[in-house]
Amino acid sequence: MAKKKLVLSFPPRLIQEPVTYNLIRQYDLQVNILRATVHPRERGRMVVELQGSKKSLDQGLAYLEEQGVQVDTLVQEMRHYDERCVHCTACTAVCPTDALTVDSQTRELVFDASQCIMCESCIAACSYGAMESQF
Amino acid sequence: MRSIEEINAKIKSGKVVVATAEEVVGLVKDKGVKAAARQVDVVTTGTFGPMCSSGMYFNLKQSTPKIKCGGGRVTVDGVTAYAGWAAADICLGCTALTDDDPRNAVYPGLFKFGGAHVIQKLVEGQKVKLEAKAYGTDCYPRKEYSAELGLEDFNSAVLFNPRNAYQLYNVAINLGQKTIYTYMGVLKPRIGNANYSTTGALSPLLNDPKLRTLGIGTRIFLGGGQGYIIWPGTQHVAEPKRGEHDLPLTPSATVAVIGDLRGMNVKYLRAASLTGYGVSLSLGFGLPIPVVDEEVMAFCAISDAEITYPIVDYSENYPLGRVADLGRVSMAELMSGSIEINGKKVPTGCLASRAVGRQVALELKQMISEGRFLLTRPVAPLPGAQLAAAL
Ligand code: SF4
Ligand code: SF4
């Protein structure tokens, strides 16, 4: 099993195409859509987590490229600005995953980007602008 | 055991022994109250969190011709200041906003810029734009004035809080059906989270619950510099209900504080934008507690497991002023990351920073150890308190 977090950018002509459906049906991939934005007549953007065998993942990605979808690996969509953070931990209470936790010794915030599902709940919870979305 | 004078003599000769309120918890466990009290002269405490009742006042240097701001209108970086004093004394509250801020008209409001941001800019060394309009008098003929000014350009610039450093605070939850935005942060519906705002065992006034060593005139660590307790804080409660270890069970002590803004630094003074609520100023506050008798040490040794806070619903009970007993939780439970309410596991988040509170206590400890901070004997106790005889 392989797993990848990717950013897919769709040209306008593809927005109507059932691309995710094909990924699931033809390539037997689990598609977890973390975020999606579509601007009319412009590009669509989607952050997905794809899961499947190494082979179907490679084939699925080849299919996406064939279709003209730009595929980028997700570097870090949420950013934690350490110099703005005061380590109050208010954000940890609204984070649905373990992406934001507290170190029990130092009482400082620990941000684990790999667990982040980009729900953006932490943005409103932080009073210091220390969590920002790059999406 | 030892008086303030004796402690100060030790500070001056470099022989003083200082420990933070966190450090003495372990020390007392190991050695007992008696030995710990003999060993340690001063216990330092610290907190850092939004303190909405903060503001600054400053005095403008006059230019010619002179202007009388009193009765006129003053803004700083567009934020409305209070010009109801004399010709050149202006007050800027941390929650003040610009006229064109949408506030909660676009809900929840973001409150990106307000009085606290102006104060932070000044402390950072940046300039702010002051604009004044006045009606003009024979002795103060100027009607308009505008200038870019930094902290050094004022005759004086003072941080002032009529209410600060609550001894006890609520744990906030939301029993309602929609997310609410409060001064206790974002509260998700159906008890989605529980927010608290205290540094627990490090919390200044909780370490001297009966206010035996502090009062009017006590020198404190404030915003990175030094300040003073000058009065009971507004909403100070002289005689709260008390539980074990004399810890308050109901709203209790607060203090009013003051300090020179020059000398403060942004590590301990930060503007906060509470979504849907407003702008606030987060301040580092540290209280040194002189160990004048064993009782002082016994109180300082109270641990996070022994301190409890009341749970309060902010969807209905708080706004409507209803009292409902939803139980209490200990600081240790809150710090574990989740608590249990009605059998449900609820994640916790804090508004005050234990990490920065700890830095405050450590920095104050260092100031005292290096002889840069002397203790003061209060000139008067706070209402409801009796000062320790040994003081
Ligand atoms: S975006 Fe959501 S999942 Fe990611 S850190 Fe913020 S609250 Fe957690
Ligand atoms: S809420 Fe903001 S300041 Fe507080 S710990 Fe989280 S990121 Fe840091």
Task: Describe the protein's architecture and organization.
- The complex is a heterodimer of chains A (135) and B (391).
- Chain A has a 4-stranded antiparallel sheet with strand order 2-3-1-4.
- In chain A, helix 1 packs antiparallel against helix 2.
- With 135 residues, chain A is α+β, with helices and mostly antiparallel strands.
- Chain A has helices at 19-27, 54-67, 121-125; strands at residues 2-10, 30-38, 44-52, 70-73, 78-80, 100-102, 109-111, 131-133.
- Chain A folds into 2 domains: 2-73, Alpha-Beta Plaits (2-Layer Sandwich), CATH 3.30.70.260; 77-134, Alpha-Beta Plaits (2-Layer Sandwich), CATH 3.30.70.20.
- The two termini of chain A are 27 Å apart.
- Chain A has 3 helices and 8 strands.
- Chain B is an alpha+beta fold and 391 residues long.
- Chain B is 17% helix and 31% strand.
- Chain B is globular, with a radius of gyration of 22 Å.
- At the A-B interface, helix 3 of A face strand 3, strand 19, strand 25 and helix 6 of B.
- Bound molecules: iron/sulfur cluster (2 copies).
- The site of one iron/sulfur cluster (SF4) has 13 residues of chain A, from loops.
First-last Cα distance of chain B: 9 Å
Order of helices and strands of chain A: EHEEHEEEEHE
What is the name of the CATH superfamily of the largest domain in chain A? ACT domain
Mean pLDDT across residues of chain A: 88
Shape of chain A: elongated
- Any guess at the CATH architecture of the largest domain in chain A? 2-Layer Sandwich
Mean pLDDT figure of chain B: 97
Number of continuous helical runs of chain A: 3
Low-confidence stretches of chain B: none
Helix content of chain B: 10-25%
Could you tell me the radius of gyration of chain B in angstroms?
22 Å
Instruction: Assign the structural class of chain A, choosing from mainly alpha, mainly beta, alpha/beta, alpha+beta, or little secondary structure.
Output: alpha+beta
Task: Please report the distance between the alpha carbons of the first and last residues of chain A.
Answer: 27 Å
Biggest sheet, spatial arrangement of strands of chain A: 2-3-1-4
What is the count of β-strands of chain A?
Answer: 8
Multimerization state = heterodimer
Instruction: List the domain count of chain A as a whole number.
Output: 2
Can you tell me the CATH class of the largest domain in chain A? Alpha Beta
Present as ligands are: iron/sulfur cluster
